[in-house]
Design a protein that fits this description.
The protein is of the alpha+beta class. Among the domains are: about 90 residues, Thrombin, subunit H (Beta Barrel), CATH 2.40.10.10; about 100 residues, Beta Barrel (Thrombin, subunit H), CATH 2.40.10. It is about 25% helix and about 30% strand. The protein has six helices and twelve strands. The strands form two sheets. Strands 1-2-3-6-5-4 form a six-stranded antiparallel beta barrel. The protein has a six-stranded antiparallel β-barrel with strand order 7-8-9-12-11-10.
Length: about 300
């Protein structure tokens, strides 16, 4: 009987303890983790949206593109060469077996006057028996070669037309490294193509080229067919004539080069006035001042 009473009392005591623990832990924790929905105000962080000295207008290329595409033309160079078959001449006599083949090359050019003077690269029209100019409005003209300068890779041709849109020369000495530029031309015969980039370097000398040492280097995409086209600033002014790319594949890989407008302008003026480019002779030869020469000369 005593064991039964002891068991009952133990059960009652255990229930009281369990109830007390439940009240203490669970009810207290419930009040602690109560979720309140509050809307926090975001902290105010001041930001500066100014981009140095660059204005939005300088990054808008639409105006420059619009006023330049009509002044860039497609140049088609047709040259005819004769190939002789010595075996045919041996059996049938001289003159037999000779065949004529027409070779066609394409490039770009820039209209620099309203009456039809167009500047391009010399290598674009080299050896041409016929030069055909196609304007952006699809009108086609036959051009006359006015003069050329192989040393600076510049040629001047003319078409009989009036009231043509044309470009004005800018002073290429004033261009800055990092300045935005546009390349306008006809790569792969894709007419009126505009690409953008920056001036990467000035006065660049191409390896193995002893003719000119003043190329403007840019990263604007230039491909075969762009030769003779325009390199312009964001105001649509001519600062160079796209001439060459540095590539192992024959296509653009990030480096293109243009003849500065000051050189091109001087060539054009000489061709118009004298028929050839006038160059001064100083009687001295310049060279690069490197570490070896500096040490030798104690400079």
């Amino acid at each position: 009987m005593k064991k039964l009473i002891t068991l009952i009392l133990s059960s009652i005591l255990g229930g009281v303890i369990a109830l007390g623990a439940y009240v203490f832990y669970f009810q207290e924790n419930t009040s602690i983790i109560e979720v309140k929905q509050t809307v926090e105000r975001p902290s105010i962080i001041k930001t500066n949206n100014n981009i140095g000295n660059v204005s939005n207008n300088n990054l808008d290329f639409t105006k420059a593109a619009k006023q330049t595409v009509d002044a860039v033309v497609h140049v088609k160079n047709t040259s005819v060469r004769t190939v002789r078959d010595p075996y045919a001449e041996m059996y049938y006599g001289r003159g037999y077996g000779a065949k004529k083949y027409a070779q066609v090359g394409t490039g770009s050019g820039v209209v620099i006057s309203s009456d039809g003077y167009i500047i391009t690269n010399n290598h674009v029209i080299k050896g041409a028996t016929e030069i055909q100019i196609t304007l952006n409005n699809k009108k086609v003209y036959t051009a006359k070669l006015i003069g050329k300068d192989a040393k600076n890779d510049i040629a001047l041709v003319k078409i009989e037309a009036t009231d043509l849109p044309f470009m004005t020369f800018a002073n290429s000495d004033n261009i800055l490294i990092g300045e935005w530029v546009l390349a306008v031309g006809n790569p792969y015969s894709l007419t009126s193509t505009v690409t953008a980039g920056i001036i990467s370097a000035k006065g660049r000398d191409l390896e193995g080229n002893n003719n000119m040492e003043s190329f403007i280097q840019t990263d604007a995409a230039v491909n075969p067919g762009n030769s003779g086209g325009a390199l312009v600033n964001t105001r649509g002014e001519l600062i160079g004539i796209n001439t060459a790319i540095s590539s192992k594949t024959g296509s653009f890989i990030g480096y293109s080069f243009a003849v500065p407008s000051n050189i091109a302008k001087k060539v054009v003026e000489d061709l118009l006035e004298y028929g050839s480019v006038q160059q001064a002779v100083l009687g001295v030869v310049g060279g690069e001042l490197n570490g070896t020469i500096s040490k030798k000369l104690d400079i």
